[in-house]
Design a protein that fits this description.
This is HNH domain-containing protein. The chain is mostly helical. 51% of the residues lie in helices and 7% in strands.
Amino acid sequence: MTKNDIEKAKFYKYLQNNINPNLKFEQDLGNIIFLPIDKLKEKSQEIKKELEACFGKDYQTKNEYAKIKDKYDKAYNKLRDEIGTQIVQEKNYMLCPYCRANYIRFFENDKKMVKPDLDHYYPKSKYPYFAVTISNLIPSCSFCNQRLKRDNEPLIDFDDTQEIFNKLEFEANVIEQIIYINIYSFKNLSNNEKKWLKQMMIEENYSNHTEILENLLSKADKYKSSRICEIAKNIGLPKEEIYNIVFAEYDIMKETNEPLFKLKQDLYKQLIDS
């Protein structure tokens, strides 16, 4: 989606026609719309200072600020209806970036269209001027967007919502059939990262998927070492190759499109590939 595409859009023209001449940040709408997500925190501080200079430190209670919120809310509704589908398609997420447990899909037929939620990483209730910032619009699952994250302040940078999974190690208590995050994983996390995990209920979500544990244990029991050796002998293949065939799904799955990828890989390493 090019800048030229945006400038032709109805939501852009609506904002252009309703610019507040006293607000510098509104003079360059393209800057707000195309601002990278890692620049939003810094930009929000600049805008806050400008709003305070214009309307006073209590600007959030002023009628002028209510008008600004209403304006960007209407602009977002226009954006969502006009190019929301294109944004989802261009971001091309297969999984919800927050939980990495649920698919986010776009599909349609002659009668209706189904598409994922568009979450505002910086919530538009608190940062109305980022309501139409493309980088701030995150395709996500309804569970994360509507029930967990909601309008809460971002606790960590958006990129860290992905990276945090690389810091976690999931384990299983085989006897009690319990899945949990290894306690030592938390030593690698900042306080805000720990709060994020709690807010998004990552451990509760992942620990609920005991079917993955059951599947691995079932295969491990069915294909014990003696059974693998027997199969290898009968068909003339090395036993390592038989293992690779039996557990092929864990070798070929990809992080970008496999729900619960980290959980599956960690349990596989703990129970099978160790």
